[in-house]
C-alpha cells in the first residue's frame, strides 16, 4: 500500500476532530432544546397567569349572574316591596362583591337595598329620562345581561350593572332585578391578588378604556371610565404600540397574546386575552411584567449550560489529544514487540507495561501471554515429550524445565480390567487397542474431574495419584468418589462395542514422586509401599468377589454409614494386618 496513515494522526487528530464535532452537535442540539424548553416553560407560566386572572374574574362575577337567575326563579310578586327587605338583605350577604341591589317595576317605582348602611329606599324614578328605555330594553332582551359600565350616584362610583327581567306565575313582566359591582372594588380585588408579585394586572373595556387597574381610585358621571392615555401608567399606555409585536414566547401561546416594550434598561412583557361575556363590548384582561425584576432561572440555566458546554468542548479536545497519544504509545510498543517475535528474538522481548485503557491493557496482557506461550511451546518442544501427565507438565514449565522429587502423603488408585488376557485373545490386537482407547478416555476424564492424575498406563491397568503432583486436601475422599463414578460408568456400558468389568484398589500413604529414566527420556512415576498395596488391593477383589477394595487409611475421612468391612488380612510386604473396606452402595447393588 503506497500511503498509510500513522496511528498517531488517527488517534490525535481524527479522534479530537470527531469528538469536537460530536460535542459541538450535541451542544447545539442541547442548547436549542434548552431554548425551546425555556420558551415553553415561560409560555406555560404566562398562559397560567392569564388563565388564573380570567378564573379569578369569573369567580368574582359569575356568582352575581347565578344569584340573578336564582332571584328570578324565586320572586313572582312585587306588590309589596317592603315585605322583601329581609329577603334582599340575605341576597346581599350571599354576594359581598355586590355594592347594592334594586327592584324596578313597570310603573317606574324602585326600591334599593344598600350594603353599607343596611337601608332600603323606595323611590319614584318616573322623572329619570332613561328609565323607560331601560325597562323596555330589559323586557325585550328577556334574559340576564351585563350592561355598559355606568356611574351610579347612589354609591358615587362607576359600576358594572347586571340585571334580569322578573315575571309572575302567568309569565307577565313585573319588573327588573338589578345588581351593581363597583369598578374600584374590582380593581382593589385584582391589586390584592397580585400584590408583591411584580405583576401589574389590568382590564381594558372596549380596548381603549381602563375598567380595572391598581391605579384607579375614583370616577365621575361625565367620564365613568378613564381612557388609557388618562391613566397614570405610562407603560400600559404603550400596550397597543409596543416595540415588539411578537415576543419570545408568542409562538408557544395558545389563546393569549404577547408583546414587548423596551423602556430604558427594562423590558416589559405584555400578556393579554380578549373575552366577551361581561357586557356589550370586549374585555381585554391581562398584565404586564418588568422582566428585569423577575427571576430568570431558565435563561440563566441555558446560558450556564452553553458556557459549560463550550468549556467541555475545549476540555474534550485537549483530553482527546492526550488520550490519542496514550492510545498510540502502547500500540507502537506492541508493533515493536511483534517485530521482535517475527524475527524469533523471544528472549529480548520485555513484558509490555499495563495501560489504564482497558482494551489496550487487555491487548498488552494477551500479547504478553502469547509471548509466554511461545516460550513455553519452545520449552515443551525440548522437554515436555519426556513426561506424560498434564499437571506434571505444568509443574515442569513452572520450574523452567526441572522437576523436583516430591515426597508426601497421597492416595493411590489402581484400576484393572477383569479377564483382559482372555479378551485380548478373543478380539485380536487391532480391536483391543480400540477398546482400550475408548476405556482409557472415559476413565481419565472421570479421574481428572475429581483431581486425579494418571501417572501410568500399565497394559490394561491405570495408576492414578491424588495429592501428587497436584495438592488436594480431600485426596482420599476424591479418590473414592472417582472410583465410584468409574464403576458406575463401566456398569452397563460398552467400549468400542465391548462390555467390560473393572476392579479397583485404593490406598493412602507416603509416596515418592519424581522423574525416572535416561537423560534423554524420563518417565514420571510414584514409588512406595502405598503404591504396592493399592495394586494388591485391586488384585484381592477377585478373592473377595468385590469390585472395590480400600485400605483403612483410605477411608479415614468417610463415615461408617458409607463403608462395609470386608475382612482383615495380611498383604504381602506388610508387617501388620490390614482391614479391607468397600462401599455399602456397591455391596448392595
Describe it.
It is built from 13 helices and 22 strands. By secondary structure, it is an alpha+beta fold. It folds into 4 domains: 75-185, Beta-Lactamase (2-Layer Sandwich); 194-294, 2-Layer Sandwich (Beta-Lactamase), CATH 3.30.450; 333-384; 388-587, Nucleotide cyclase, GGDEF domain (Alpha-Beta Plaits, 2-Layer Sandwich). Strands 1, 2, 3, 4, 5, 6 and 7 form a 7-stranded antiparallel beta sheet that branches. Helix 1 packs antiparallel against helix 6 (297-342), helix 6 (297-342) runs parallel beside helix 7 and helix 9 packs across helix 10 (429-449). The longest helix has 68 residues, at 7-74. Residues 384-388 have low confidence and may be disordered.
Amino acid at each position: 500500500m503506497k500511503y498509510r496513515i500513522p496511528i498517531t494522526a488517527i488517534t490525535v487528530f481524527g479522534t479530537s476532530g470527531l469528538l469536537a464535532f460530536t460535542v459541538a452537535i450535541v451542544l447545539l442540539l442541547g442548547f436549542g432544546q434548552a431554548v425551546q424548553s425555556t420558551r415553553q416553560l415561560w409560555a406555560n407560566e404566562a398562559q397560567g397567569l392569564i388563565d388564573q386572572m380570567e378564573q379569578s374574574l369569573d369567580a368574582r362575577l359569575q356568582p352575581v349572574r347565578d344569584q340573578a337567575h336564582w332571584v328570578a326563579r324565586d320572586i313572582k310578586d312585587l306588590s309589596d316591596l317592603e315585605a322583601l327587605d329581609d329577603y334582599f338583605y340575605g341576597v346581599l350577604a350571599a354576594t359581598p362583591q355586590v355594592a347594592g341591589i334594586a327592584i324596578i317595576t313597570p310603573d317606574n317605582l324602585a326600591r334599593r337595598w344598600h350594603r353599607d348602611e343596611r337601608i332600603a329606599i323606595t323611590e319614584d324614578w318616573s322623572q329619570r329620562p332613561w328609565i323607560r328605555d331601560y325597562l323596555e330594553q330589559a323586557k325585550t332582551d328577556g334574559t340576564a345581561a351585563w350592561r355598559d359600565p355606568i356611574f351610579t350616584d347612589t354609591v358615587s362610583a362607576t359600576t358594572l350593572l347586571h340585571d334580569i327581567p322578573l315575571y309572575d306565575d302567568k309569565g307577565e313582566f313585573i319588573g327588573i332585578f338589578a345588581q351593581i359591582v363597583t369598578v374600584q372594588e374590582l380593581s382593589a380585588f385584582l391589586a390584592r391578588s397580585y400584590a408583591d408579585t411584580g405583576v401589574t394586572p389590568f382590564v381594558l373595556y372596549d380596548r381603549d378604556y381602563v375598567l380595572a387597574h391598581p391605579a384607579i381610585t375614583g370616577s365621575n358621571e361625565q367620564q365613568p371610565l378613564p381612557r388609557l392615555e388618562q391613566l397614570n401608567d405610562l407603560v400600559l399606555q404603550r400596550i397597543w404600540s409596543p416595540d415588539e409585536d411578537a415576543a419570545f414566547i408568542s409562538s408557544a401561546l395558545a389563546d393569549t397574546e404577547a408583546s414587548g416594550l423596551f423602556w430604558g434598561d427594562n423590558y416589559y412583557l405584555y400578556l393579554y386575552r380578549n373575552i366577551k361575556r361581561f357586557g356589550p363590548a370586549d374585555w381585554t384582561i391581562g398584565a404586564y411584567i418588568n422582566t428585569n425584576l423577575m427571576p430568570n432561572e431558565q435563561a440563566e440555566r441555558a446560558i450556564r449550560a452553553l458556557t459549560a458546554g463550550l468549556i467541555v468542548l475545549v476540555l474534550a479536545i485537549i483530553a482527546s489529544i492526550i488520550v490519542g497519544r496514550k492510545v498510540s504509545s502502547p500500540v507502537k510498543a506492541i508493533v515493536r514487540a511483534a517485530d521482535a517475535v517475527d524475527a524469533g528474538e523471544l528472549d529480548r522481548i520485555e513484558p509490555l507495561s499495563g495501560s489504564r485503557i482497558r482494551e489496550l491493557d487487555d491487548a498488552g496482557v494477551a500479547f504478553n501471554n502469547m509471548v509466554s506461550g511461545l516460550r513455553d511451546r519452545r520449552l515443551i518442544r525440548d522437554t515436555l515429550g519426556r513426561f506424560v501427565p498434564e499437571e506434571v507438565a505444568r509443574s515442569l514449565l513452572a520450574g523452567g524445565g526441572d522437576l523436583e522429587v516430591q515426597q508426601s502423603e497421597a492416595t493411590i488408585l489402581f484400576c484393572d480390567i477383569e479377564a483382559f488376557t482372555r479378551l485380548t485373545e478373543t478380539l485380536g490386537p487391532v480391536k483391543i487397542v480400540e477398546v482400550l482407547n475408548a476405556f482409557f478416555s472415559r476413565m481419565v476424564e472421570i479421574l481428572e474431574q475429581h483431581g486425579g492424575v494418571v501417572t501410568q498406563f500399565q497394559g490394561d491397568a491405570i495408576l492414578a495419584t491424588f495429592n501428587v503432583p497436584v495438592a488436594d486436601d480431600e485426596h482420599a475422599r476424591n479418590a473414592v468418589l472417582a472410583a465410584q463414578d468409574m464403576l458406575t460408568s463401566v456398569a452397563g456400558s460398552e467400549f468400542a462395542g465391548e462390555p467390560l468389568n473393572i476392579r479397583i484398589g485404593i490406598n493412602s500413604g507416603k509416596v515418592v514422586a519424581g522423574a525416572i529414566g535416561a537423560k534423554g527420556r524420563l518417565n514420571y512415576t510414584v514409588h512406595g509401599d502405598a503404591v504396592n498395596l493399592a495394586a494388591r488391593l485391586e488384585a484381592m477383589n477377585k478373592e473377595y468377589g468385590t469390585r472395590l477394595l480400600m485400605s483403612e487409611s483410605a477411608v479415614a475421612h468417610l463415615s461408617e454409614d458409607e463403608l462395609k468391612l470386608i475382612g482383615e488380612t495380611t498383604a504381602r510386604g506388610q508387617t501388620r494386618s490390614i482391614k479391607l473396606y468397600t462401599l455399602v452402595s456397591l455391596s448392595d447393588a
